[in-house]
Each structure stands twice: as C-alpha cells, then as structure tokens.
Amino acid sequence: KNEVEQSPQNLTAQEGEFITINCSYSVGISALHWLQQHPGGGIVSLFMLSSGKKKHGRLIATINIQEKHSSLHITASHPRDSAVYICAVPSTGNQFYFGTGTSLTVIP
Amino acid sequence: EPEVTQTPSHQVTQMGQEVILRCVPISNHLYFYWYRQILGQKVEFLVSFYNNEISEKSEIFDDQFSVERPDGSNFTLKIRSTKLEDSAMYFCASRDRFGNSPLHFGNGTRLTVT
User: Which of these, A17, A52, B34, B87, could form a disulfide with B46 (CB 3.0-4.6 Å)?
Assistant: First the structure.
C-alpha cells in the first residue's frame, strides 16, 4: 500500500510547455512537501503547503486537503527544470512518506 | 543560507565491513533523519532522531544500523556489517521543529558495497 501516489511517473515536454505533476495521498496530513531531486542526486525542498496555493518563480503548487490531492505546475518549462519531482507527506509520527517521483525531461 | 552537509560524497566498501556516514545538520535544527534511495527506486525512511534518541525507525533499520549524535553537531549513521543490498544513496535531513517546517536535505552519500 502506498500512502503517496504520484503521476505521471515519467514526463517529457518541449521547452516552454506548461507542466503538471499530480500527487494523491491517503493519510491525514498537516502539510505536504514538494521536493526536487537533481540529476546528481541532491534533494531540495521546493514547497511546503497546508492549504491553497504557493508560487515561487515559475513553480506553482496547489493543494486540496478535502480531496487529498496536490499538484505542482511549471510554467514556461526550461531544460534546467529537468529533474525528479517528489511529493512527501508527514506521518502522524516523526517520519515522511515519499512518492515514487516524477521524472521530468524538458527538451530544448 | 545554512545547509546540511554530508561526508563522504561517495564511499566504496567491501561486503562485511563497517561504514560510518557523517552528517552535519543545520545548527539550530532539532529533528534529524536518515533516508536511503536504492538506484531507480523511491526515497525510503530509515530513522528519525530527536532529543538524543531515536523517535521512529523503519523495518529497514535493523540491528546492523545505528545512529549517534556524538558531539552536538555531527549526526552519524553506522552500518555494522555491510551487505551488497546496502548499496544506495543515503540522505541526511533536518528540520527545526515538528509539524509544518520544511525538510532540509544533504547532498547524500553514495555507498557502494562490493
């Protein structure tokens, strides 16, 4: 059983396209995290959100707590956005459940 | 901006050897974590640590694993007798408080067991 499901698993886009990555979760949460894993392996926290919408540059994250669903959008995608995007939710204890990640490739 | 640092970036060891992976969390953070990611698979939780003790651990974190915070700044993961299947990327993470606070990750240590 996966507490966190992401779709799609793989995504290829042309530079400039609008991209959407989806995350559904089954546990009750206080906040959801979107992470970016670079091709070299390092992980960076992009967003932490508990309601509504957050924007950072060309990245927008939304969450619907009632539907247990979050989306990460990238506007005007660029090859440097190529990475794995991971959704993570905290457990009731002190750990996190991670999605399997969405591997994004943006082609020039 | 403060960051979590991990050393070494890559460790190669022979099966059966002990390895120690080191992490320096952000200085005012209180909650510390180790995760691992086997190549091509998702990130998996190993252990969380708070107030100088383990607060949660996964099924993966068996008796061959241990964690320590020996000197108030370093946070280490020891694997006592490495197996081939321990080959993975190991990430340390920290955050400043429980609840809604972001996780800060180190760049990881790639462990290769031969």
Answer: B34
Is B21 strand, coil or helix? strand
Contact assessment for residue A85 and residue A21, using Cβ atoms and an 8 Å cutoff:
yes
- Residue B33: is it exposed, middle or buried by C-beta count within 10 angstroms (0-12/13-18/19+)? buried
Question: Percent of chain B, pLDDT > 90?
Answer: 77
Cβ atoms < 10 Å from Cβ of B39:
9
For chain B, the average pLDDT equals 92
Distance CA A88, CA A94 (A): 13
Q: Which residues 45-104 of A have a C-beta within 8 angstroms of B?
A: 45, 48, 50, 86, 88, 91, 93-101
- Is the model's pLDDT at B105 over the cut of 70? yes
| Residues of chain B positioned with their CB less than 8 A from the CB of A31 | 99-100
A94, A96, A100, A102: best to mutate for the B interface, most B CBs within 10 A:
A94
- Find tokens 């939710």 and name the residue: A89
β-partners of residue A98 are A88
